[in-house]
Amino acid sequence: MPAEKMKALGGKERAEEARIRAKNQQEESRERAMKRREEIQQKQRQARERGRTEAQVGDFVKHCEAQKNIAMVSWQKTFSELSDQMTAEDKKQEVLLGAQGQMALQKLFRPPTLHTMGYVRAGHVPKEIRQLLLSHLNKHRSRSFVAAFNPLLGNQRKAKALPLLPEWTKKGGFIDNLLRPILEKASGKKMELVEVGASLQIYEEGASLMQHVDSPETPITVAMPLEANGAGSSWHLQIGDPQGHKHRPIPLQPGQLLIYEGARLAHGRAGQLPHGDLTMAFAYYRPKANYEAKRIQRTLDQLLASHNAAQRGPSKPPPPKPRKKNEEFRKMDEL
Q1: How far apart are CA 74 and CA 156, in angstroms?
Q2: Which of 4, 5, 100, 316 gives 20 to 30 Å between its CA and that of 228?
Q3: What is the CATH number of the domain that holds 136?
């Protein structure tokens, strides 16, 4: 091959190599620019997420403090006043759990919403709900406080409350949308949420829960044990039979789900929790059609009045008095 042709060929190869190098450099430059843009966008997203998290924490802190204030106000009574409330509640439940009260309840709730026994083991708490609530419990347990006074729990202050975020507990919210299909499958009826318990209930050593029936406004209870330590795992709920005679313990381990007719059947826990603790979440439902809570309550009020017993359950506590911000709620932990 003549030298001129070889020289020309070498020049073309070098030119091609230079073109390829230039192209590769442009691609590398574009990739570096894209990577920088993605890093900047990621940092911006993280900053926005931190802002949202801080806002959520701030909202939760305020909500938690407001609920604590309400609970504190409910205890701002003399020992005699608290005892009178407990005596009135005890009298009311005595009437409702007696033969006449049980007969009236079985007639008023006929046919039963679930079945004759009035409770259903419904498998397990949806994984998404349990994971969310356990994470909330682990992160914010230190924010729990003595629950508002409730005659059913006694006056030993052995039950604590840990508020939940309001958007979790609303009708059509995260918890409702996961629980309602389970309840409708168990009952064969369309159901609507009355309320999700606004707080996790933490029973501690010495806690008690007297035998009682719930208000007709919350006829169906969904009970969700989340965590149990020590004797908390064997401090079972006891549910009475439809005649109100035999109360059988319903063993329920953390993560299992129990649905029961709390307004029809007596239920409670035997004695005091000897040691350990038990954390529960609750939701309350009623049938969407052909259910008249007010009519049922009027009939029960007449029965209670005939026995000189209080006609309604414990009233809601008055709004809290303003007080200085507690240091406990100033720390901005991550949600």
Answers
A1: 14
A2: 316
A3: 2.60.120.620
